[in-house]
Write a structure and sequence with these properties.
By secondary structure, this protein is an all-alpha fold. Helices cover 52% and strands 3% of the residues.
Length: 278
């Protein structure tokens, strides 16, 4: 038994020594290619692919006049609905954006977005040509505007860029709302380009406002409110709910707090409402 024990111990020692030798002298780490040139080549390929992807994602911009940015154009440029709305309201006052700085001040876009799109701004000659601008103003004074609420189909067709469909839509819209209360309501006629609206406003304006019934926002029902231009039944219900919750509406500006009423829409709605009956 002693001989067998000694033999077993000896074999165990030999196995341990062999295992240590293998552990020490054999490299079990994975083979790594440290070829720097290959690594640099692969990295360049990755960078090239990333650059190509960015080019594909970047929209194609062409020179444009920022005074005539539509909702869709503003969206493609990366502007928010609020920024687009600020631009439209500014233009409705017959004011013009004449520089990138003006654009930022009016819309409130970020510096990074302005840096991306301002190189594509294209302004007309009169921005830098004061003589041309003064001449235009003089011509306007010499030719007083005509009544927008009396404009005929033939007169509309004499406007540059006007189409038969646009002329019919303008006359139908005027009839539907009971007559224009202000010139900027022309912008609300769907499908009529802004440049055509500006061309109309150069020659026509609201001289005599139509006789319409101003509705009391504190007593009108949702059904009554929904009969007014620009107010859907859902928005009318929101107005009534707000009125009940706050025990009345003291100032029409409160309507800006109601879901579904944007600043642009509020400028239209307030033409047909009051907070009391005179």
């Amino acid at each position: 038994m002693d001989v067998q024990k000694r033999s077993g111990i000896l074999i165990l020692i030999i196995l341990i020594v062999a295992g240590l030798a293998v552990y020490i002298w054999v490299d079990f780490s994975p083979e790594v290619d440290y070829n720097k040139e290959r690594i640099v080549t692969i990295q360049r390929q990755i960078d090239s692919i990333k650059s190509a992807e960015k080019q594909v994602e970047k929209p194609d911009f062409y020179p444009f006049n920022p005074n005539f940015i539509s909702d869709y154009k503003g969206y493609t440029l990366g502007m928010s609905p609020e920024e687009i709305d600020k631009l439209h309201r500014f233009r409705e006052t017959d004011n013009w954006i004449n520089s990138a700085a003006d654009f930022k001040q009016v819309t409130g876009v970020s510096d990074s977005l302005l840096a991306d799109i301002s190189p594509y701004f294209k302004f007309p000659d009169w921005v830098t040509n004061s003589t041309s601008k003064n001449k235009s103003a003089t011509t306007s004074k010499e030719n007083p505007k005509k009544a927008l609420n009396k404009i005929t189909h033939d007169e509309l067709m004499s406007i540059d860029g006007m189409t038969q469909k646009a002329a019919r839509d303008i006359l139908y819209f005027r009839k539907r709302i009971g007559g224009f209360l202000e010139d900027n309501q022309l912008f609300d006629v769907y499908g009529v380009p802004n440049k055509v609206v500006y061309a109309i406003k150069d020659k026509y304006t609201v001289i005599n406002e139509p006789q319409i019934e101003i509705m009391n926002v504190n007593t009108a029902s949702a059904s009554d409110l929904s009969t007014l231009p620009y107010i859907t039944f859902d928005v009318a219900k929101e107005i009534v709910d707000y009125r009940l919750l706050h025990e009345g509406i003291e100032d029409l500006d409160e309507l800006n707090k109601i879901p579904g009423i944007t600043p642009y829409k509020f400028d239209r709605i307030k033409l047909y409402l009051s907070t009391n009956q005179n």
